[in-house]
Amino acid sequence: MLLERIYDEDLSQASYFIGCQAENVALVVDPRRDIQMYRDLAAQHGMTITAVTETHIHADFLSGTRELAAATGASTYVSGEGGEDWSYGFDAELLRDGDTLTLGNLTITARHTPGHTPEHLSYLVTDGAFADEPGYYLTGDFVFSGDLGRPDLLDEAAGMENTRFEGAKQLFASLKSGFLTLPDHVQVFPGHGAGSACGKALGALPSTTVGYERRFAWWAPYLERDDEQGFIDELLDGQPDAHAYFARMKRQNKAGPALLGERPAPRPMGTDVLVRGLEDGTFALVDTRPVDEVHTGTVPGALSIPSLGKAATHIAWAFDPESDAAQLVVLAEDADVAADYGDHFVRVGVDSLTGYVSSLDGLPSTVPATVSPADLQQLQAEDSTALLLDVRGRSEHTNGTISGAEQLSAGKVLFHQDELPAREAGRLITFCQSGLRNSVAAASLRRAGYDVVELEGSYAGWSRWTADQHDLAAAGEDAR
């Protein structure tokens, strides 16, 4: 048996390549949409991908199940559980609780594990060459290392109401009647790791075991004493903000993501063509430089995506492909790097990367407005209509913020403009913790027509300045 974990650090998402080495056939579970790595793995091991499946209708990334099946001719399997409202909108073979897939010597058994979503499946894997019972469990967004899949995303991302309570009850039942009935030795391979918004306390370990979670997970004592209400209360408390793009992912994954096929490589973009396209709205530039460099000058209306490592996350916050028809041109040193950005972008359904430039020379330039912590109070006094906006998460804001600041996370600002003042009503003064998320959010808001001033150093910088002022005042008192 071969089991390979393919982990995307950008979205903290894991997919799995499972192969029978006796018959050289493989199954891929929860593939992302840039599929070449799965094809490369198959070629490396001399295997044929014959089946593709997923654990549930994902909210945080666009599934590559249809894409990989179309490229390889593999059979497609999805959940048939959860009821009509959670039926997939594309052709695939349906799996229900207890159904099995045979892959050479391997048997993959679907288990219905609702809670995170109503249709959620997990997969028990039995390696028939060595054992006659399961030894591995692919749990998707059901059980993570040290945590559970949040049951409130349907409320947060899909516009539903109060599904979190039923979902939490389902998670409790799924653990009690399913997960905890398995032997301690069963290895657990979850669909996400630390950094994912699909839970509140995910561990960074790539795998765990049933026995370890039974003994050490935060939820284990509640199950041991059959305390459903205590479990629900702790599970729902303090869940992080759900990014606004999750709603689009849910819709597209349910219907079936558009097939990409062979994607053309991003082409080098001439300055004159790009300038005309920027002027008429055909193109939008993606500035990939660090925040400090962006603040020295960037292209008017450019998006700020300061890191390839989080390019999927940040482009999904900053660009809405359903309302913005612009073709993206990325600042990249060469075509290969530009293609890497394209791979990240399609993971969240941003398919419009067309070209790249390796320099901003010859392009129009503007310097994003900033204000220092020392001058913040004066700016607010001069402009009483300015809104001080904290674009960090809810829990960060609750744990400490600047007096008078309102909160709307960077993953929501572009999509919740109804919660902001009208564009003509005044400027926004924005900050995050260190400045990176703020740069992404501020650039997207400027592109949407807002007058935005970024707080230099963001909350961390303001906190240091405030502490310094306190120390100076204390020193002055001591001197007197």
Describe how the helices and strands are arranged:
Blueprint: E1 2-8, E2 13-20, E3 25-29, H1 36-44, E4 48-53, H2 65-72, E5 75-79, E6 93-95, E7 100-103, E8 106-112, E9 121-127, E10 136-140, E11 143-144, E12 147-148, H3 153-158, H4 163-177, E13 187-190, E14 208-209, H5 210-216, H6 220-224, H7 228-236, H8 246-255, E15 267-268, H9 271-280, E16 283-287, H10 291-294, E17 303-304, H11 311-318, E18 327-331, H12 335-346, E19 353-357, E20 370-371, H13 373-382, E21 387-390, H14 394-399, E22 406-407, E23 428-431, H15 436-447, E24 452-455, H16 458-479
Parallel strand pairs: 3-4, 4-5, 5-6, 10-13, 15-19, 16-17, 16-18, 18-19, 20-24, 21-22, 21-23, 23-24
Antiparallel strand pairs: 1-2, 2-3, 7-8, 8-9, 9-10, 11-12, 13-14
Helix pairs in contact: 4-7, 11-12, 11-15
Question: Can you put this structure into words, describing what you see?
Answer:
Keywords: Hydrolase, Metal-binding. This protein is of the alpha/beta class and 480 residues long. The chain is 32% helix and 21% strand. It has 3 domains: 2-255, Ribonuclease Z/Hydroxyacylglutathione hydrolase-like (Metallo-beta-lactamase, Chain A); 267-357, 3-Layer(aba) Sandwich (Oxidized Rhodanese, domain 1); 370-467, Oxidized Rhodanese, domain 1 (3-Layer(aba) Sandwich), CATH 3.40.250.10. Strands 1-2-3-4-5-6 form a 6-stranded mixed sheet, with helices on one face. A 6-stranded mixed sheet has the order 7-8-9-10-13-14. It has a 5-stranded parallel sheet with strand order 15-19-18-16-17, with helices on both faces. Helix 1 (36-44) links the parallel strand 3 (25-29) and strand 4. The longest helix is centred in the C-terminal third of the chain and has 22 residues, at 458-479.
